[in-house]
Each structure stands twice: as C-alpha cells, then as structure tokens.
Amino acid sequence: MYIQRHLEHQILEASRYYPVVMVCGQRQVGKSTMLNHIKEPGRRYVTLDDGNARRLAANDPALFFETYGAPLLIDEFQRVPSILLEMKKIVDQKALSGEDSSGMFWLTGSQKFQMMQGVSESLAGRAAIFDMSSLSTAEIEERPAALFHPDLDTIRERLKRSRHKSIHEIYEDIFRGGMPKLRATDIDRDRFYMDYINTYIERDIKDLSQVGKLNKFYDFLVFMAARTGQELKYNEIASTIDVSAPTAKSWVTILERSGVIFILRPYYSNSTKRLVKTPKVYFMDTGLAAYLCRWPSPETLESGAMDGAFFETYVVSELVKSYFNAGKPVDLFYYRDIDKKEIDLLIVEGDKMYPIEIKKGKEPSKPDKHFDVLQQFKMKIEPGIILCMSDELIPYNRTSWYCPVSVL
Predict the structure, then answer these.
(1) If pLDDT is split at 50, 70 and 90, which confidence band does 120 have?
(2) 202: confidence class by pLDDT, cuts 50, 70, 90
(3) CA 307 from centroid of its chain's CA atoms
(4) Is the peptide bond before 71 cis (omega within 30 degrees of 0)?
(5) Quick one: average pLDDT of 138-155?
(6) Among 106-115, 149-158, 172-181, 305-314, where is mean pLDDT lowest?
(7) Higher model confidence: residue 187 or residue 121?
(8) Of the ranges 302-316, 320-334, 359-373, 386-400, which one carries the lowest mean pLDDT score?
(9) Alpha-carbon span 379 to 352, nearest angstrom
(10) Quick check: 75 and 45 in contact, CB under 8 A?
C-alpha cells in the first residue's frame, strides 16, 4: 500500500524549472518509493547500491550517463558523488544548445552532508533540494498538505480537517513512529527498527572516517535518544560515551545531516546578552527514539519518566515535517535566558513573533507565564498558542490560546 506524500507536488513543480531535483533524508523514509510512484513512464531508474552501476559511475561517468540516458532517477547517488561533475557538464551542454534541460535528473541520498558538499561545488543554481522525513500525521491520516502556521484563522481551518485524538492514541503514534514500511505493512515494529539500526550503522556510518568504533556509535545513538527534547551538551556526550568532545561533535553532525535528528537553535539577538545559546536536539522519528530507549509499549512510555520529552519531540518533529513537505526552510527557534525562563518554540516573521508552548495536559495552568519576556525584542507579539490535549481551540486569556495537538 502506497501512502501519498505531501512532497509529491513540490517535486513535480520543481522538475519543471530545474534540471536536477534532489531528495535527501534518513534511510527508509520513502524517498525512492515516492519518486518511482510519481515518475513519468520514460524515466529510467538506477541505484548506486548496485555494484555494477556503482563501478561504472565511478570509473567512467560519461559512459554511465550514455548507458542510462535522461530523464533518469539515480538512487543513493551519494555513494559516487563524483558523478555530479559529469552531470553538470551534461546539463550545461544542453542549456548551451538551447534545449530544455528541466527535470533531467532526479537524485536521492541518505547522506545529506556528502550531497551538499558536492552540490555547492558542482550544481549551484541547477538543483532544487528537498528534505524528506518519515510520514507526518497529516499524511498518515490522508489530510491535505499544509504548512503549519500559528495564526489563529489558519489553525481553525486546519482543525476542520483534523481528527481529535485521545492521549493514548497520541502515544501509540509516538511509539510506532512514521516509517512508511511500519505504517503500510504489518511488519513487527521491533524487528523493523533492529534491522534499520543495523543497516544505518553498517552501511551509512561505516563509510565515514570519523566513526572508528561502531559499538560506541550505537551507545551514542541510545544516549542521544534518551536526550531527545533536551539541551545538546557535547561535553556530557563525550564523558558518558568515553569519546573526545570533537568526536561527539562530529557524530552529532552525522546524525543531523543524515536526517535522524533535528537541532533546534535558540533565538538570539545582539540586543541582549542574557540569552542562552545552547541548542536543543530532537529525534525526527519518535518510534526510532522509543525503540532505542527500550520502551516496551505505548502505555509505559505515556506514564514513564520521558513522557513529556517524547510528547515535545512529537510536536516539534511534526512541525519540522510540515516545513519539509512544503519545501520551505525550517524557521523555528526556542527561547531561554540565564534566568531559566523558556518558551518551547518561536516563529519569527518579519517584525512579528509567535510564541508556542507544548504541554501534555488538557488545560495546563499558567501556560504563558514567560511570554512577557519577548517584549524586550521590540517586535509585535502575536497571540501565543499552547499545543496540548485541549478538546478545542479556546482562549486561555487575551494573549494565548489552548490548541488541540491534533491540529498537527
């Protein structure tokens, strides 16, 4: 069973204007499945996981492209990043001869950092680049694509198409995660994630010179999952896992660039020196994080010590997915100062600020107690929303509203 992806429209639209379209994201999120589903009949497919195709691409890229032609879908292309130079040559020759070069090459890769290094050097201005993650709740529920925006009228429209969920249903979603194979088949969840981690470490991570001891990298993965929703402290990682701080930093970069984690940066302004600059880290797939933390069931997760961290991770990852699926850069921050006043999320648009709090309760008390700190930025503070288990969008007071988390 194929679950329609919100990114489909963005890909097809970009393919009308750009010669190269890239989709990058963590392994198993459905990149090649989506592109194979929407590709036109004449577009050929080749994966560089195939040894013969990989050898040809590495040894004679010109012959590789002569063999497969265009339009072409190249899967896991980061395994031979050197083909980008030949691709650039082909695209430029076509443009010089006055021919239409749009949509010639579609690429997927699960190692965004290798992709981006090559792109910046070879395909600047010639490639449309999209991030893709596991299924969003809106995709699973077959709702229409829509970028999340905290404007109250926009939320009211979204709620018309949303299905209200109980807290138990939310934690079932958190526990299962959004990997397409888990959602479209009856594969055993634990078996899927065990295979996923083995593949990720043995295939993607083994290729990277920064990772020496793979067993320590697994310990690092578990540690990071246990810290989802918390501040990212490299020294703490290094001392716990027994690696150097630079190694900890490089491993975090690997997780971020392969789409496993999202790093939320703090909002910072030169007008004040009292702001904390430490980022926070969130797993992009809550099911993977729950598996790594060895939570045995949705019920134990919901009542366990990490219930709040996983609820927050779920909300943040859903918001990030809505940006990815709209093809937009992620414009999210959080606020924290040295007095430990914190606001979970900030969306800044021009001279406007939208504060967002994330609470597991149904009617959390004093949910907006720190919103007043935003006055220091001399911007227009829009009504804040508290994403929680409320049954409806309802004002807490004149400046903040309870908002059902099912809006996501």
Answers:
(1) low
(2) confident
(3) 21
(4) yes
(5) 95
(6) 106-115
(7) 187
(8) 359-373
(9) 6
(10) yes
Sheet with 230-231, side-by-side order of all strands? 230-231, 280-283, 261-264
What kind and span of H or E run contains 405?
Answer: none
350 DSSP 8-state letter: T
288 — phi, psi (to 5°)? -65, -45
Tokens representing residue 341 in the block? 């006043």
Six-digit token pair at 338? 């040295």
Pairwise pLDDT comparison (81 vs 106), residue with the higher score: 106
Domains of the chain are 8-131 (3.40.50.300), 137-407 (no CATH)
Q: What is the DSSP letter of 57?
A: H
Peptide bond into 329 cis (omega under 30): no
Q: Are strands 342-349 and 333-336 parallel, antiparallel or unpaired?
A: antiparallel
Which three-class secondary structure state does DSSP give residue 278? coil
Burial label for 16, CB within 10 Å (0-12, 13-18, 19+), is exposed
Is the model's pLDDT at 111 over the cut of 80?
Answer: no
Compute the distance between CA of residue 197 and CA of residue 177 in angstroms, rounded to an integer: 14
Q: List, for residues 238-266, the tens digit of each pLDDT value.
A: 999 999 999 899 899 889 988 999 999 99
Containing 251, the helix (H) or strand (E) segment is: helix 245-257
User: What mean pLDDT do residues 108-120 have?
Assistant: 69
Q: CB within 8 A of 394, min separation 6: which ones?
A: 401, 402
Task: State both tokens at 363.
Answer: 């009617």
Q: What's the rounded mean pLDDT across residues 339-357?
A: 95
Report d(CA 171, CA 298) in Å as an integer: 6
CA dihedral 173, 241, 279, 132 (to 10 degrees): -40
CA separation, residue 340 to residues 27, 97, 264 (Å): 37, 61, 17
Here the tokens at position 283 are 């797993």
Residue whose entry in the numeric block shows the structure tokens 């959004």: 178
